[in-house]
Amino acid sequence: MSVVTVCPYCGTGCQIVIEGSKGQRVSGYSLSPVNHGKLCVKGYSGLTYNFSDDRLRYPLIRSNGEFRRVSWEEALDYASKRLLEIIRKYGADAVAFQSSAKCTNEENYLMQKMARLVGTNNIDHCARSCHSPTVAGLVSTLGAGAATGSIESLGDSKTFFIIGSNTTEQHPIIGAKIIEERDRGKNLIVADPRRTKLADIASIYIQFRPGTDVALLNSMMFVIVNEGLQDSKFIEERTKGFPALSREVEKYDPVLMEAVTGAPSDLVIKAARIIAEERPAAILYAMGITQHIHGTENVQSISNLALLTGNIGKRGSGIFPLRGQNNVQGSSDMGALSEWYPGYVRVEENDVERIEKLWGRKLPRKRGLALSEMFEAAADGKLKAIYLMGENPLVTEASVADVERGLDNLELFIVQDIFMTLTAGKAHVVFPASTSLEKEGTFTNTERRIQKVNKVFDPPGEAKPDWWILKEMGMRICGMRNYSSPEEIFNEIRTVVKNYSGATYQNIYPIGKQWPINENAPEGTEILHATAFPIGRAEFKVIQYRSPAESVDEYFDLIMTTGRNYYHWHSGTMSRRTDILERESPEPYIEINIKDAQRLGIRNGQRVTVKSRHGSMSIKASLTDSIPEGVVFAPFHFEEARVNKLVGNELDPVAKIPEFKVVPVRLIP
Ligand code: SF4
User: Fold this and answer.
1) Does ligand 1 come within 6 angstroms of the Cβ of 43?
2) Contact residues for 291 (Cβ-Cβ < 8 A; gap 6+)
3) Which of 95, 109, 624, 629 is most buried by its number of CB atoms within 10 A?
């Protein structure tokens, strides 16, 4: 028997075919418009974690410092009773819910609905730490916080501008598509502090200083406006705010900006001309753009560049925020964010009344705590309980010492996961959950494609699908309906989230459809904003360059930037329990420019101490010439060297994302 489902790793959302009771044969689904039968190493070889011996199999309650196995009835009754006691004693805002971009749309919908029915908007998930600036930035400029085109439509692009994305490592199938198109003679411009694989084959590679994205993008727009290369017809007919933008970018002469960005002005000028003249041009970005305290402004600058050059609303053009986790797009669509109800209805908006009618309950209207604020609130005693599903913040969040302090101070910590992660080890109650290959539901990928997730294996022991656990908890704490299947939940989602209204489990199978899917677009929508923006005219934003939260000085003289590598995923919960992936990348490391290493007397493979203003750790040095002098890079997958210990807790004021990409450090051999 073979089952078609969706890869559980990155936001590309490749469709996979799995055969055999233990998934002995895995292949790419040839009819998929996303991956056309191709998969990367994680899709082909990254699924054996499903059968790992250390899967959680039974519900657990902590007593006298030890976990003891209990029945589902006891675990659910205990957790719900304690949660209700805390709500009665301290109020609904004393509890918080942390959802998961690894879980399905149906599960994220239930998690956020539970939070809101309990009476709080303290609901968030890891999009906060990756693409919350995309939602905030693109909603403010275009009216929709999502990719504007499809992966397939990139075949019509003449030019690709990739900034802040190591695409071949993070979204390998999209990276492969870019390589194919480059081989066909398309223009490829890469801007990144690290010399990525795509930078090696680019027509223009701009290496620039971490955190100077706005200065770089404004200097490209300086060239376009100064040389009259903007798309005046598009600007006049479909945008507002151009005069103010052009006045602002006048201050960003690329020659003068070299001192700020480190980007050679001749390359900036050439790149700007190509983006404006060799159209359609697609702009792709990832966390190199968003994980800054100016992440929202970085995204708005990208939007400015696309609008200025008319590169939006047509095949081959557009803005492509490459989503990290497999269901970041869907979890955000479902409203698992503290400032948004499902379908991007702001918590303060009148449209919340429509959802109140559908759910039959008065709903909270004040923005809740963001993920990045919850742990400090717990440490301060304002937050008394957290219910967390499928996340490992002790590895993935900034300032993990504060996360630890917060978790240690909770009266109740409930964790629902597939493994006993570092974070789950601190819980009072642990619910054993199912992987995405053990349940049904839907994921929405980076191009807004809603795809059916199908069950391939049975969960181990007494583990249950997350949607079942959530509805059991919901029935106990907030009178949630006794949903009988993920499809029943999806059918409710269709009544709440307008962009999903025309999707059904039947019509999205097998290859999915891109939202909006509704009566006007029953087959979905490949290209957004083709004739109109949801906000009428798109809006240019005036963005001034501001320096990062922290700067290098004589002591902290290197900038550390964090990220992922090709073989692992996020906190490594799944990929590090997969033999082939772990074999390829078994231990933590920090990449250092060869010249910096020589200056500091560091050999390849030597252990070094990395110190920031927030913490220190010991890690193996890996020498490379792919990053510029003055910059070091460390992946964050490894719990034995948690690089996020070194990251500070300054936040983007709008999107509340920490600055993972600019961390001044000192290396001590
Ligand atoms: Fe899975 Fe992403 Fe690789 Fe596709 S590109 S196989 S979705 S990890």
Assistant:
1) yes
2) 129, 130, 562, 657, 658, 659, 660, 661
3) 109
Residue 232 maps to a domain: yes
Specify if 138 maps to a domain: yes
Cβ-contact 280, 317 below 8 angstroms:
yes
Q: Please give the tally of structural domains in the chain.
A: 4
Are 95 and 173 contained in the same domain? Answer: no
pLDDT confidence of residue 521: 97
CA distances (Å), origin 173, targets 109, 241, 322, 506: 28, 37, 12, 26
CB 241 within 8 A of CB 537: no
Ligand 1 in reach of 47 Cβ (< 6 A): no
CB-ligand 1 contact for 174 (6 Å cutoff): no
User: Can you give the pLDDT at residue 570?
Assistant: 85
Q: Is 298 part of any domain?
A: yes
Closest ligand 1 atom, residue 8 Cα: 1
Residue 180: predicted pLDDT: 97
pTM of structure: 0.96
Find out whether the beta carbon of 660 lies less than 6 Å from any atom of ligand 1.
Answer: no
Q: Say if 505 falls within a structural domain.
A: no
640, β-bridge pairs: none
Same domain (yes/no): 344, 276: no
From the CB of 10, is ligand 1 less than 6 Å away?
yes
Span 606-645, pLDDT tens digits: 999 999 999 999 999 999 998 999 999 999 899 998 999 8
Q: What is the pLDDT of residue 22?
A: 84
**Ligand 1 centroid, distance to 197 Cα (angstroms):** 17
Low-confidence ranges of the chain (pLDDT < 70): none
CA distance 49 to 154: 33
Q: Whose CA is closest to 92, among 362, 402, 324, 335? A: 362
**CATH number of domain containing 114:** 3.40.50.740
pLDDT number for residue 90: 98
Q: Is the CB of 419 under 6 A from ligand 1?
A: no
DSSP state of 419: B
Among residues 469, 495, 521, the one where a domain terminates is: 495
Is there an atom of ligand 1 within 6 Å of 12 CB? Answer: yes
Examine the domain organization and report whether 333 and 318 are in the same domain.
no
Is 172 in the same domain as 278? yes
Residue 383's domain spans which residues?
60-126+329-437+461-495
Number of the ligand 1 atom closest to the C-alpha atom of 173: 5
CATH number at residue 31: 2.20.25.90
Tell me the C-alpha to C-alpha distance, in Å, between residue 630 and each of 190, 291, 511, 611, 627.
20, 19, 45, 15, 9
CB 171 near ligand 1, within 6 Å? yes
Q: Are residues 178 and 82 in the same domain?
A: no
Which atom of ligand 1 has the smallest separation from the CA of 28?
A: 6
- CATH code, domain carrying 586: 2.40.40.20
Residue nearest (by alpha carbon) to ligand 1 atom 4: 14
In testing the pocket of ligand 1, which one of 4, 17, 39, 327 has its CB within 8 Å of the most ligand atoms? 39
Residue type, position 180, single letter: E
> What pLDDT does residue 160 have?
98
Shared domain check, 69 and 40: no
